[in-house]
Amino acid sequence: MFMVFRIFFAAMAVILFPRMVTAAIVPVTPHETDAVSGVAPILKNFLLMPPEERQVLFDNKDYRQKLNDLRDAEPTLFTWECTDGETGTFELVLSTAEDLSEPTDVFVYPKTPDGNVIRAVNFRTGTTYYWRIRCKSDDGTVTESPISKFTSDEKMPRLMRLNGIGNVRDLGGRKALRGVPVKQGMIFRSATLVENSPDFKNSAETSKSLSDFERGKVLLDPAAATYAVEILKWRTELDLRCDAELGGQNASAIPGVNYINIFTPEYCKIFSAHFSPSKQALSRAFRVFCDEKNYPVLFHSYQGADRAGTLAFILNGLLGVSPNELQKDWEISAGTHLNYKDFFTLLHCFDDFGDRETLLSVKIERYLKTCGITQGEIDEFRRIMLSN
């Protein structure tokens, strides 16, 4: 009788699932115990050092250049074994849900012919992912591996890779006020998506008017633009460059994304009465982040280091991210022209807004109020970025 039931259920399985086979593909890496991160090992070791040790290394121009070359995310390799000689088209199924029902905003590269390997990048920090490998053979048979899982490294920032542009990362993931992590997938920073006008370098000598400046070439790869709008769901691009850099650019390189240009200063120029766009520009830029309809937002300057770094400092600092984490975020953008004087001058410029016991988030809040930002706008920004 038992054998009859086994034959019956086997027959039903063939009828209901005629081309589904399981368990001949075995996941290998990443392992369940791996703390996956897109941060290169050299940069990861650097970020785990105490601030004093990082400063010693950072002052070495050659080492700083090495860090600069590693600020884009490294892909994670998903590997597997075929125990029954499976051939066909392999795909990676990836999710944040145990039943694989929830899609992710990870970028998965097409499989290349170099063995049982698929590359993926842009994992959120401190997040558990579930994955399996699915193979469709030429005759239509589908073979699936068991589901495996791993958790990304919560101590590392979410570095990202979008072909054509550099210095891309998510501002979220770091601990903020009351120990609440800053939301991921909401605010991104990067270098420019469109090259500066070729007339910009010679703008001091040229007789051209700004209206005649030639627009720079688009740097962002079309496939990356599609990923940004369809998967990352970017709605707004905030460009911090000046008119001469733009060369007449008035739209995003990403179709369908709202484009806002506000030329903003960097470092202590945001406090300067002699730099006319400072407080007015900062208040206009900050208000972009007070409207939930604008999210997710990408902001950038040219290299994504000075002007973008200053705005990133204000946004995450206001949310309560620690000075050490703000310093790490600034260090990741380390071009060879940067030095700690820029960062610490910015940090100490806020000393006028409180004493040594005053939290940096409070000092930044007080500064923003001198720019015309209201408490209601500050509260709304924190609600958007810190609430579940």
Largest sheet: 6 strands, mixed
Low-confidence stretches: 1-22
Number of domains: 2
Order of helices and strands: HEEEHHHEEEEEEEEEEHEHEHEHHHHH
Query: How far apart, in Å, are the first and last alpha carbons?
Result: 55 Å
The third-level CATH topology of the largest domain is Protein-Tyrosine Phosphatase, Chain A
Indicate the structural class.
Answer: alpha/beta
CATH level-four homologous superfamily name of the largest domain: Protein tyrosine phosphatase superfamily
Strand fraction band?
Answer: 15-25%
Mean pLDDT, nearest integer?
89
CATH hierarchy class name of the largest domain:
Alpha Beta
The count of helical stretches stands at 12
Any idea what the shape is?
Answer: globular
What this model shows, in words?
By secondary structure, the chain is an alpha/beta fold. The chain has 2 domains: about 100 residues, Sandwich (Immunoglobulin-like); about 220 residues, Alpha-Beta Complex (Protein-Tyrosine Phosphatase, Chain A). The chain has 12 helices and 16 strands. The strands form 3 sheets. Strands 1, 3, 5, 8, 9 and 10 form a 6-stranded mixed beta sheet that branches. It has a 6-stranded mixed beta sheet with strand order 11-12-13-16-14-15, covered by helices on one side. The radius of gyration is 24 Å and the shape is globular. The N terminus is likely disordered.
Summarize the structure.
This protein has twelve helices and 16 strands. It has helices at 2-16, 41-47, 51-58, 61-68, 222-230, 243-246, 278-288, 307-318, 323-332, 340-349, 360-370, 375-386, and strands spanning 20-22, 25-29, 35-36, 76-82, 89-95, 107-108, 117-121, 128-136, 142-144, 148-152, 158-159, 169-170, 187-190, 236-239, 258-261, 297-300.
